[in-house]
TrEMBL record:
Chief location of this protein within or outside the cell: mitochondrion
Localization of this protein: Mitochondrion inner membrane
Signal sequence, start to end: none
GO BP term, example: mitochondrial electron transport, NADH to ubiquinone
Domain of life according to the entry: Eukaryota
Name of the molecule in the record: NADH dehydrogenase [ubiquinone] 1 beta subcomplex subunit 9
UniProt keyword annotations, A-Z: Acetylation, Electron transport, Membrane, Mitochondrion, Mitochondrion inner membrane, Phosphoprotein, Respiratory chain, Transport, Ubiquinone
Pfam families per record: Complex1_LYR
Domain Complex 1 LYR protein, first and last residues per copy: 13-70
Source species: Camponotus floridanus (Florida carpenter ant)
């Protein structure tokens, strides 16, 4: 989900946001770095040309026109970052289950003797707790 501002957004923040979105739109359309840089420099020049405007009505008008121009020039398939909310890897976590460690070779386990000794102790404690809590489960495990 996008960041939703909880307070009022100033005019300068709106302009910065527009500039950032415009630069990303340019990147979407220009895949060669040379073309992208030229267009980005020209875009920065357009923004710098209007940075000293004191009349807020005219500045707001320019901001609205910029938003309209950006909307009309949007790329049909914009680039997204993999971990952003619209990216392909959003919300993925590559967590390996703990049981994989049981299949390690003894030579691999020998590298971390304290860890695996503590792990075996914790497994035994958990098994003891489990069968004390659920005594009828011990019978079903022995049957299989």
């Amino acid at each position: 989900m996008a960041h939703l501002p909880s307070e009022l957004v100033s005019h300068s923040q709106k302009v910065c946001s527009l500039y950032k979105r415009a630069i990303r739109c340019i990147r979407d359309w220009n895949h060669k770095i040379e073309n992208y840089r030229i267009q980005a420099i020209l875009m920065r020049e357009r923004f710098d040309k209007n940075k000293d405007i004191k009349d807020m009505r005219y500045a707001t008008y320019l901001l609205q026109e910029g938003e309209k121009e950006l909307f009309s020039n949007q790329h049909y398939h914009p680039m997204t970052y993999p971990n952003s909310a619209s990216g392909g890897a959003y919300g993925r976590k590559g967590e390996t289950p703990d049981c994989v460690l049981d299949y390690w070779h003894p030579l691999e386990k020998a590298r971390y003797p304290k860890y695996f000794a503590r792990r075996e102790q914790m497994k035994n404690e958990y098994e003891k707790w489990y069968f004390e809590t659920y005594p009828d489960q011990k019978k079903t495990i022995k049957d299989h």
